[in-house]
Amino acid sequence: MTLDDKKKFIINIAFIITAYSVLYFVFVYVIHWIMPFIVGFLIALSLRPIAKFIRKYIKGTGKGVAIFVVALFYAFVAIILWLFITFLITQLTDLIYAMPNLYFNKVEPLLLEFNDWIVANTELISEDAATTLSQVITNGINYISDVIKNASINIVQIATKIISNFPLYLISVIFTIVLSVFISVEYDNIIAFIKRQLPDKFNSTFEESRVFLVGKVWRMIKSYIIIMFITFFEILVGLSFLKVKYALPIAAIIAILDIMPVLGTGGILIPWAIVEIILKNYTLGFGLLALYLAVTVIRNVIEPRIVGYQIGLHPIITITAMYAGLRLFGFFGLLIAPITAIVVKYLNDTGKINLYK
């Protein structure tokens, strides 16, 4: 390694440490204060293509069209959220009340039967091992029972915390709406002002990253959102056909988990199907397996068509980035870290930065 290579290596390491330090400080201490601006900016950015399209056919100022599009967007979101959340809360409430009976009447007897089977077979090898294993399983069952019993208390505490923070949430939402309107109206002036404050080299890298994000990553995100909704409706229809109670919240949870690497729909549907088959609920058990196969086949067919472009980020890197983002920055980091990793990979591949070969 030459002296220049050593200097570049040290500079790159210093850059990474500085960048992560700044990101950590921003996400941990600053993000809560600037979140309305970030969300408002992203909403304004997302609605710009719609505003441009409408301006082609409607006579009016750009500001007037921007305000109209933002107002229409929030009206649509408010109606959808009100309908969805009202129905979802009703089903979630029923599900929460039904969970203890479901566990104590179906799941716990199955676990106790499994415990007896394990002990009976282990005693043939060693009585001490059987006793120890039985104690471990019993402790696990007792722990789950305590969690189920205390679930209602924990939910009440969470609800109380949400209600106590509601004024703060309401203020944040109001600021986000107001900011998104002003940013939509003054978008070009705001971007021009930000560019004037930054060095030309940084502006070039930033502009290339923005084009990449909008042109590639943003399309990918929208594609997977479409896939998530398709998966949600598939599972909702399937569970409704199988006459499963609380189909809506269960379908929503599985559809969200389906986006996660490795876990997918199989992480929920397959164990659920196995438990139902063991409990001799063959119709539901095999129905869940058929639903999983249908969802998997449909996803494999539509994903290449909808996504159309794969970024090429290895699953190990994706999972590592998501875990690191979650630990460092919370749920927001879980979402942002993989996108950051994709942008870093793109900039490194195009030679804008040199972090690795």
TrEMBL record:
Keyword DNA damage (UniProt): no
Chief site of localization: membrane
Annotated localization: Membrane
Keywords on record: Membrane, Transmembrane, Transmembrane helix
BP GO annotations: transmembrane transport
Membrane-spanning segments: 9-27, 33-54, 66-89, 166-187, 224-242, 248-275, 282-302, 322-347
Topology within the bilayer: Multi-pass membrane protein
GO cellular component, one term: membrane
Superkingdom of origin: Bacteria
Keyword field contains Ribonucleoprotein: no
Family of the protein in this entry: Belongs to the autoinducer-2 exporter (AI-2E) (TC 2.A.86) family.
Protein name per Swiss-Prot or TrEMBL: Sporulation integral membrane protein YtvI
Record organism: Sedimentibacter hydroxybenzoicus DSM 7310
Originating gene: ytvI
